[in-house]
Structure formats: C-alpha cells, structure tokens
C-alpha cells in the first residue's frame, strides 16, 4: 500500500530511477513520510498529528527532561548565543555540512518528492512544502491541490488594507517597511486574537493559529505585488481578472508582480521553497517564535519576523548582493573578469570595513545547498548571462580571499549570493524589493512552526540575562572558594 502510493506520487519512471540512484535511507524516509497521508485537507492532516506529537513530547520530557542539552559559556552569552542548543523547532533542521532539511528532507530530495505544477512544472509547488512543514508528510498531488484551492480562496486582500497601502510614501519608505506595515494592517482579522478575547481554551489555540497562518500566507503574494507595483510601477496594478484563475502561489506571485513567463513562475516556486525555513535560531524565525510565545497572534508575530529579516546581515543581504555585484561590474569597467581583478575588488570591499554580502553563515560550514539549487536553475536557463558568469567566477575567488583574511568561520556562499541575479535576468531589477520575496517565502516555515508552538503549548520565552558585573563576581567568588 505504502509503496503503491509512492509510485503514484513519483510516477513509475522516476521511481525506477530513484531506486537505482537513491541511498536506501532516503528511500525509507520517503516511504515513512508517506505512510499516514490519508487526510484530504491540510487542517485534517495537522489535527491527526497533534495528539501523537503531544504524547511524544510528553514522553521525551518524562524520560530526558532533566538531562543537560548544552552548556552556555560566557563567550556564547556575549556572542549571540551561537550554536547553543536551547530551543526546540520541529519544521526544519540545519546541518552545518549538509544544509537545511525540511522535516528530514534535503532540498534535492524535496525537489524530487514534492508534487509539481501540471502539466510540465520542474520545481516543487510551495503548497506541497507547506504540507510537508506542517505535517511531516510528503503530500499526494490531490492533497497539494486541496491546499492550492484553499489558499486561492483566501487570497484576496481586504480593500481597506489595499487603500492604506496605496497611501504610504512609496518613494521614501523601504518595501520591507511597507511589508511589515501591511502584515500589521491585516491583523484586525486575526481569528486567534478573536478566539483569545472570547476565552477559547489553550488546547485549541493551534486551530486559530493555523487558520490565521493560512490566510496570511495566501494573501502575501497580493500584498507583495501591491507594494512592488506601487513603488516601482506608479501604482499601475495587474487587473484582478488576470490573477483570479491562477491556481498556485508561485504563479500567483509572479503574475501579480506583472511577469508572464512560465520560466519566471518556476523561479518563483523554487524561490518560495528555498527560502521558506532555516531552523529556529535565525533572526526571523526566532523573532516569530519569541513574539508568538506571548500569545501575540500570527500577524503580530510574523510582522516581528519581517522586521528582523529586513536587517542587512540577514534577509536584506538579498538586495545587498546585487548592488555589490553591479558595483563590482562598474568598477571592473573594460577590464576582464580575471581572478586577479576580482580579488583586488574583494579586498577593496574588506578594506573599506564592509562584509562581502552573500558569503558566510552563522551555522553552515559549506556551500549553501540553496545556492546550489539556484545555480542549477541558472545553468539550465541562463548559462550565458554575464551576471551569472560573474557569480560563478566569484565562487572561485571570494572563499580564498575570506580565508586569507582569516576571520570568517565559513568562507562559502549562502543563498543570498545567487538569488538577485536570477530575478534581474527576468526583469525584476529593483533590488530594494528582493527581501520582500524572501519574506513571502519565510512565512511558510515560520508560521508552520508557530502552529506547532501553540499545539505543543510552549510557554512564554524568558531566558535569564545577567550583567557583566554579575559574571565577574560569580566567577571570582567561585575561584576563591575553589
Ligand atoms: N565578509 C567579510 N567578513 C565576514 C563575512 C563576510 N561575508 N562573514 C563573516 N565575516 C566576519 C564577521 O563580520 C566577523 O568579524 P568580526 O570578528 O570583526 O566581527 C568574523 O568574520 C567572524 O564571523 P563568523 O563567526 O564567521 O560569522 P557570524 O556567525 O558572526 O555571521 C553572517 C554570519 C552571515 C552574519 C556573516 O557571515 C555575514 O555578515 N555575511 C555577509 C552578509 C550575508 O550574506 N548575510 C546573509 C546570511 C544568510 C541569511 O541569513 O539570509
């Protein structure tokens, strides 16, 4: 039965290929993840997982609740708590060498296993990833179709919110600020806030949280497009009739922005999948978790996440990379793109006291597989693009420069190094807007995780802080008594 469903999900030809080329553990994990997929709606599927997961957490806490998961050094307390294991986050896990796994599945595995758009889509549908993130199951095509239809039904943004967005000072206000404002403006429809005000029991919060998460995710493409068209196209919007019939989120985003090419639809699907989640400790995910832990509803929590994503060391690197690449091209002028010329320009950036955007990572210690997935897309669709060639050449140059500089723990490129040149190739040249796309995608992971925070009844976050004086006295006292 399980294998039969797997055959259906993959198609017979893919299955034969997979059997030959996949390590058996991947095969087994995939079959396991399909094994309980009988629900016809996402809500039903999540509901069926709640009690077993609550029981699992209860058992783990009973057995290991007093074990030490990690110890925190003074340097970690000053150093952004780097690598400190002090959170539980179910939807994804980041391995320093392998990169991200969504519910146990790597990016190439997700590309192989998740359903694609019909008739000839090449990239996974973001709706399929949403199912995987929320339930841990690889959905069937009909399950993904049910999510597509559900999100489509919820996609229209209330006209009063659109009117308020139209009134913002677009020329002076960064698109990420507009985005954060937009999400806060949508908050007045929160089912979670309403249920809380009416005294709903804590055990049911997850249902309202899921309801809000789905509505918010569904509306983000239209919100992003409104910001884009207001800021860069004089408020000339794509007519609603052109969007209403579009079935999936990636294509809806592409078409609402004003792009009509199938290849760009595919890029948006890939983009939405790649940026969705990166375990729990990154700034945007942690901000969503933290604010949500005060039982702020998903709109308020996600707006907080967006404000964190807008920082240049996090999501804003998406825009900074393209600017840096364009500056580099300008500085090169007529000189060829040789290793020596690029090296010199990279050193110039470092000497000016700036980071090289799109390189390095707080957790990863190898090339980001999200970079690799985008590179594969570029190799297929834009191999001769000048900017792609620049990015490819920098892969040979920057890690060596950063290693020579001797500070970075990871000299390899991250996701942000690649995304800008793909968007630019298809005509989305306004780099200020790029982090908004990142934000649309990040909703899939962070809001899925938030639903689980409420389902598992996680309490308000409140780590203990200490002062420098406290640290000094604590350790001085300890060394005297030793
Ligand atoms: N260029 C120059 N210097 C860099 C660098 C880079 N790309 N990456 C790290 N460094 C420097 C750090 O600034 C730090 O210097 P100081 O000791 O003088 O403060 C030193 O190397 C050690 O840093 P690290 O431990 O290797 O990296 P962190 O965990 O502190 O920071 C990150 C991680 C991503 C913020 C950093 O690598 C960076 O600034 N990269 C460029 C910006 C970027 O691409 N951000 C996007 C990351 C992905 C995402 O979240 O979207």
Q: Which labels suit this protein?
A:
Citrate_synthase_sf; 24 helices; 482 residues; three-stranded antiparallel β-sheet; transferase; Citrate_synthase; globular; Citrate Synthase, domain 1; Citrate synthase; mainly alpha; Citrate_synth-like_lrg_a-sub; Cytochrome p450-Terp, domain 2; binds carboxymethyldethia coenzyme *A; single chain
CATH architecture of the domain at 150-312 and 430-456: Orthogonal Bundle
Shape: globular
Secondary-structure content class = mainly alpha
Query: Kindly state the mean pLDDT as a whole number?
Result: 94
Helix content: 55-70%
CATH superfamily of the domain at 150-312 and 430-456: Citrate Synthase, domain 1
- CATH topology tier name of the domain at 150-312 and 430-456: Citrate Synthase, domain 1
Order of helices and strands: HHHHHEEEHHHHHHHHHHHHHHHHHHH
Spatial separation of the terminal alpha carbons: 65 Å
Radius of gyration: 23 Å
**If strands are numbered along the chain, what order do they take across the biggest sheet?**
1-2-3
Give unreliable regions as ranges.
none
CATH top level assignment of the domain at 150-312 and 430-456: Mainly Alpha
Largest sheet: 3 strands, antiparallel
Number of helices: 24
Task: Describe what you observe in this structure.
With 482 residues, the protein is an all-alpha fold. Among the domains are: 190 residues, Citrate Synthase, domain 1; 111 residues, Cytochrome p450-Terp, domain 2 (Orthogonal Bundle), CATH 1.10.230. Helix 10 runs antiparallel to helix 17. It is globular. 44% of the residues are buried. The model has no long low-confidence stretch (mean pLDDT 94). The site of carboxymethyldethia coenzyme *A has 21 residues, from loops. InterPro entries: Citrate_synth-like_lrg_a-sub, Citrate_synth-like_sm_a-sub, Citrate_synthase, Citrate_synthase_AS, Citrate_synthase_euk, Citrate_synthase_sf. This is Citrate synthase. Keywords: Transferase. GO terms for molecular function: acyltransferase activity, acyl groups converted into alkyl on transfer.
